[in-house]
Amino acid sequence: MDLRQLSDEIESVSTRYADALGIERDDIWFLLKLQEEIGELTQAFLMRTGRARTKGLTSDELEAGFRAELADVLCHVVLLARHHGVDLEAEIQRKWLSRQA
What is the CATH number of the domain that holds 47? Predict the structure, then answer.
């Protein structure tokens, strides 16, 4: 699966979610939703590394939560980029991959 195909699929899920809950996905929503997910990733990381209470979760559950939050952050980065018309593949190529030695 390429990033454009992934973006289409993530957009479809996000649209259905927003429609079901009556959420207006505007510039502010896309940014704040990403910020929310980064906060959840931070919490999962802190719990996973013993820097926050684990809420009774097992190490496997903490690991699964961390992985899930990483996916949420990536999906919301993709959504934010898509909303603003940013071609992430092109930007990754320009910013990261063009510097390969």
Answer: 1.10.287.1080
Owning domain of residue 24? 3-99
Split into its structural domains, the chain has a count of: 1
The whole-angstrom separation of Cα 79 and Cα 77 is: 5
Radius of gyration of the chain (CA): 16
Look at residues 36, 37, 23, 22 and name the one whose alpha carbon lies nearest to residue 69: 37
Quote the distance between the C-alpha of residue 100 and its chain's center. Answer: 26
Q: Encode pLDDT of 52-73 as tens digits.
A: 999 999 999 999 999 999 999 9
pLDDT (0 to 100) of residue 101: 62
The number of beta carbons lying within 10 Å of the beta carbon of residue 61 is: 14
Give pLDDT tens digits for 73-98: 999 999 999 999 999 999 999 999 99
